């Protein structure tokens, strides 16, 4: 592979002219999922470098890969540690983008632009319209600081649960809100801000009830929570419910938006 010594200015300005025939596809996904945005050079030609951008993002790349590595210095912070190429060797012109732990903020128009080996031109290969939509079983809860609330979650058919990570918060970064397995809460993998403030409403998880009790709310608890459960006899964790929690200053009333019937 030819080593690239292309100034970033050229990478930005040397984009080839784009015709109206550039391939565009639409992808719909849900928060918390990992997806792959497909892009391959015509004729499966080898690629020297690739950038993925989002047209509405402003500054920073989704991913810039050149000289055999990801360039983090020019990456938009919201995508750091969440994106990679499916094949860093870019064999057969494969420059698919892996995007992990989706949030609704990832919705946008993505462009895959590639520099072929032996060329200084950067060509737009594909445009992808990504829509990250809340799942049908999402509910919205509004509460006030200092309150204690229950975030409801129950397995379909009231099946018994073997373990639950009630819960992750999609914008939180590292650590669980609560991870319950082997009959106990696992504090080693818990985000410090939730320690001693969360519990399962029923640690026996009878009838598939894995609702989360969250005590002494703070405005920083605002976020998108996901309830994921491992069934008995299975190694896979399944997303059961998403809850959009808004913790607002005093004076706002507590509301529970139940567009979908609670189980």
UniProtKB/TrEMBL annotation:
Keyword Membrane: yes
Ig-like domain mapped to chain residues: 7-129, 134-244
Signal peptide residues on this chain, from the entry's feature table: 1-20
PROSITE patterns, A to Z: IG_LIKE
Keywords: Disulfide bond, Glycoprotein, Immunoglobulin domain, Membrane, Signal
UniProt-listed GO biological process terms: regulation of cytokine production; regulation of leukocyte cell-cell adhesion; regulation of T cell activation; T cell receptor signaling pathway
Cellular compartments annotated: Membrane
Molecular function GO labels: signaling receptor binding
Main location: membrane
Pfam families membership: V-set (PF07686)
TM segment ranges: none
UniProt cross-references to InterPro entries, sorted A to Z: Ig-like_dom (IPR007110), Ig-like_dom_sf (IPR036179), Ig-like_fold (IPR013783), Ig_sub (IPR003599), Ig_sub2 (IPR003598), Ig_V-set (IPR013106), IgSF_BTN/MOG (IPR050504)
A cellular component annotation (GO) from this entry: external side of plasma membrane
Protein name (database record): Ig-like domain-containing protein
